[in-house]
Amino acid sequence: MLEIRAARKVFYRGQPDEKIALNGLGLTLKTGEFGVVIGSNGAGKSSMLNAISGSLSLDSGQILINGDDITALPVHKRATRIARVFQDPMLGTAASMTVAENMLLAELRSTRRTLRHGLNARRLADYRERLAILGLGLEERLNTRVDLLSGGQRQSLSLIMAVGGSPDLLLLDEHTAALDPRTADIVMEATVRAVEALKLTTLMVTHNMQHAVDYGHRVIMLNAGRVHLEIGGKEKANVTVPDLIGHFATKTDSMLLAS
Fold this sequence. Notes:
Oligomer: single chain
Protein name: Putative ABC transport system ATP-binding protein
CATH class: Alpha Beta
Shape: globular
Family: Belongs to the ABC transporter superfamily.
Helix content: 25-40%
Low-confidence stretches: 255-259
Number of domains: 1
Largest sheet: 6 strands, mixed
Number of strands: 10
Membrane topology: Peripheral membrane protein
InterPro entries: AAA+_ATPase, ABC_transporter-like_ATP-bd, ABC_transporter_ATP-bind, P-loop_NTPase
GO cellular component, one term: plasma membrane
């Protein structure tokens, strides 16, 4: 479970270009829930993910994971509980290493054992089982160098590597944005299979309105550093892309009138 309580972050405080990135942001994500975050540029999406992962410190407010206050913890201490996949398929994997070696590298990241002694039949069987969840055939390509994979395959591998330690929370930071539309859809389907199979609590930021409609339990719209709108349940099941665009337009109009 993720709880964000009255999170506030201001950049360049007291200067002419002062920017309020998070303005009392409050958000709760239940265990096993898949939340999809949308919002215009500057709405606070990246700042929120950075605050959760620990790469951005809050001026005030709290962040809790399963009831534990992690607000003051550094990135490396949150890493065992929070996994994050970025939009660049080149990040998170070692291009010159095989799929199996990348899986092992992710598993042994915090140990001093070497890759040469780490790969064994038990681990390879485990990697095949986990990769099979994606439905992309990567379980049959354990000995393939990662630089020979497609962008979608590589991004899906990054996902499985990130969640190998059974994190309490998965953050998807526009992880399909660098892919072509068809590949992005394939990666989203693989993502959903992994999230459901591993029962992951997931928070995904996306600019893809169709993905926001099609995936997740709840759509969360950010604006000016706070939650502007949440759509879940039956309303989420029936929402359309024009509906979401309409909410954007309504908010933009109200901001123009207030200025």
